[in-house]
Write a structure and sequence with these properties.
single chain; 116 residues; mainly alpha; 3 helices
Length: 116
């Protein structure tokens, strides 16, 4: 059985490296958050699996790296969806503004039709 001190000692470098990558990564906040969450989750799961076979540090390192990549991909996809949603919302707002402008123009033309 792995003690808490051994597990913490093996996970600290992974957490430090993951925080460096996620803090300095170019991408969006969602991508960085996904990478950070994935790295921590992967390192935890990898550490547990590695502890079961007698190599918690190796398991944590591999799990952290895989989790970092997977989390970044998921975060990037979520960010893409958020951007598309914002663009659609903007298009809906623009369409509503144009519709209101055309309604006002029609209303201003109606009284003039009766004068002819």
């Amino acid at each position: 059985m792995v003690s808490f001190k051994q597990a913490a000692t093996s996970l600290l470098p992974i957490i430090f490296v993951a925080s460096l990558f996620t803090g300095c990564a170019g991408g969006s906040l969602t991508t960085r958050e996904g990478a950070g969450i994935g790295a921590l989750g992967g390192a935890s799961a990898g550490g547990l699996i590695g502890a079961a076979v007698g190599h918690p540090a190796v398991g944590a390192a591999i799990g952290g790296a895989l989790g970092l990549g997977a989390g970044a991909l998921v975060g990037d996809q979520l960010q893409g969806q958020e951007i598309r949603q914002q663009q659609q919302d903007q298009q809906i707002q623009d369409n509503q503004t144009e519709l209101n402008r055309q309604r006002q123009e029609l209303e201003s033309l109606r009284p003039q039709q009766g004068e002819y």
